[in-house]
Prior knowledge:
120 residues; single chain; mainly alpha; 0% strand; elongated
Amino acid sequence: MVKSTDRRPAIPPKTANQLLSQLEGDDTKIFEIDRSNLVLQLRTLRRTINDGAEEIDMVALESVFVKSVSRALTRASGKLYLVAGDLDALLDLIERAHAPKSSGRTNSKRKPRIGRKAPD
Length: 120
């Protein structure tokens, strides 16, 4: 038998405000899930780019192609290493990020838009 860890009531909320009040307590959990998923995706992307740059660099060093193509491959691999470095910096920022104090949601109603007047 599986034990439920969800503390929300089984009865679905009837209004949007009831739903928002239930989700507000979960903001930190949702943030952590999103952050960990993004960290995983960035690590995978960075690793793939580094591996690709390394492969391109090795082909360029083997001189399989003419010198002009080998130089182009070396330049391309250098650019890929730079992209991987940028992803690494972004990854560091995301790993150190914390959930915002407020959810950013407001319960106030939006002001009506002022549209253009219809031609007479």
